[in-house]
Write a structure and sequence with these properties.
This protein is about 35% helix and about 20% strand. It has helices spanning about 75-80, 85-90, 95-105, 110-125, 140-155, 180-195, 215-225, 245-250, 265-275, 280-285, 295-300, 320-330, 335-345, 345-350, 380, and strands at about 5, 10-15, 20-25, 30, 35-40, 50, 55-60, 60-65, 130-135, 160-170, 205-210, 230-235, 255-260, 275-280, 305, 370, 390-395, 395. The model has no long low-confidence stretch (mean pLDDT about 95).
Length: about 400
């Protein structure tokens, strides 16, 4: 069905040609085969018309860092944290990632899929049309592959585009608690080759942090991933400056994520290597911390910044990128336009999809948000109260 969208208030998008956020008024959109075929004062050749009654249109939002495949939430840990325990203390007592590992290992693939599928509706409700999704709660060959098969099925059966990342190096499973090198061996010798052979992931991620995977471990894992044509990305410098940002630069990682504790050397290395910085201010908020990633400084260094929710059961239950935009402008030093670019074009770039999604442009996918607002400044302004009227994915309006 060829569709034209009429009576548009304005279209706001990042423009690669102009290198800025642009607003187009007095235009109509022609949608065919899930793509934007024309943007003009008047389009022709449509079989149906959607009158949007003066609303503002933006690209669908892209969330380049999520962990949506898990069995149960961990609200009990939230209660423990607000009672005074730290995230690290809870992990040492068998909570945290280890609790989710036990759940995933005990779950059938079908149950895991059904629970995860229901969660994806929350992303769509808040305007997100593409997400990256990580494994990392299986931490053995069988269950990491199970998670990645679930992610593949989510991509096939959900309206969302779901891009898979292998995160076997999320933590050390209980059976390798005292044999970290043995688990790194397992990741490199068995898990990465199996994931690559089954074509279940585009990326490989590592939680490079004190108490998790060292820079040396992370380098070995990500180099193995590169050898198997999996592209590297990192959880980097979340709690302290560990040298992870420098490693991301060394390996040419697509993105280094978190970065609350990134140092000057790490930022300089990322800038020189062109590594994207993906900031997750919702995690800082949810963990009750006050040290947000230095977004302003990263941008001033010449580093492109994307934003993501880090949706997961333990440290960020956000699926709402408008709230993340609010946090980024309030606490990370981004302007509204920078935050908007960070959830559209730059977020697409963090997933290698910037020629497909992340902008309202001819021949781009027709992933659109229809807003009851007059300016994108209102997106972070209406904190927690989205002014989204409807969402379109590949030219189809999504039922709310």
């Amino acid at each position: 069905m060829i569709t034209k969208i009429t009576n548009i208030g304005s279209v706001v998008t990042w423009s690669v040609a102009d290198q800025k956020v642009v607003e187009m008024s007095g235009v109509e959109l022609l949608i065919d085969d899930g793509k934007i075929r024309a943007i003009a004062p008047q389009v022709t050749g449509a079989e149906e018309e959607i009158n949007v009654d003066g609303c503002l249109i933006t690209p669908g939002f892209i969330d380049p860092h999520t962990h949506p495949v898990f069995l149960n939430g961990r609200a009990n840990e939230f209660e423990m944290r607000v009672s005074g325990k730290t995230y690290a203390e809870i992990a040492r007592e068998g909570g945290g990632i280890i609790a989710s590992i036990q759940d995933v290992r005990s779950s059938s693939e079908e149950t895991l899929f059904e629970k995860s599928l229901r969660r994806l509706d929350n992303f769509l409700f808040h305007g997100t049309t593409t997400i990256e999704a990580k494994s990392g709660y299986g931490l053995d060959l069988e269950n990491e592959l199970k998670m990645l098969r679930v992610i593949k099925r989510l991509n096939e059966e959900s309206p969302l585009d779901v891009i898979a990342t292998f995160l076997g190096a999320h933590a050390f499973p209980p059976e390798f608690k005292d044999d970290h090198s043995g688990y790194v061996d397992l990741i490199c010798s068995e898990m990465i080759p199996a994931v690559a052979e089954a074509n279940l992931a585009r990326y490989c991620d590592v939680f490079c942090e004190k108490g998790y995977f060292t820079v040396k471990d992370s380098r070995r894992i990500l180099q193995t991933a590169l050898d198997h044509r999996l592209l590297p990305r990192l959880h980097a410098d979340e709690f302290e400056d560990s040298g992870a940002a420098e490693l991301a630069a060394e390996l040419g990682a697509v993105s280094a994520d978190h970065l609350m504790a990134v140092g000057e050397d790490g930022m300089q290395a990322m800038a020189e290597a062109g590594v994207m910085a993906t900031l997750l201010p919702g995690t800082t908020l949810f963990l009750g911390k006050t040290q947000y990633a230095p977004g302003r400084k990263l941008i001033e260094k010449g580093i492109e910044v994307a934003l993501a929710t880090d949706f997961n059961p333990g440290s960020s239950t956000l699926t709402n990128l408008p709230i993340v935009m609010s946090l980024a402008t309030l606490y990370c030093g981004l302007t509204v336009e920078e935050a908007f670019k960070a959830v559209t074009y730059n977020a697409a770039k963090a997933l290698g999809l910037e020629s497909v999604v992340g902008a309202v442009k001819e021949n781009y996918q027709a992933d659109l948000i229809f807003w009851d607002i007059h300016s994108i400044t209102e997106i972070p302004y209406w904190l927690g109260s989205d002014r989204i009227l409807s969402v379109m994915k590949k030219g189809e309006l999504i039922e709310s």
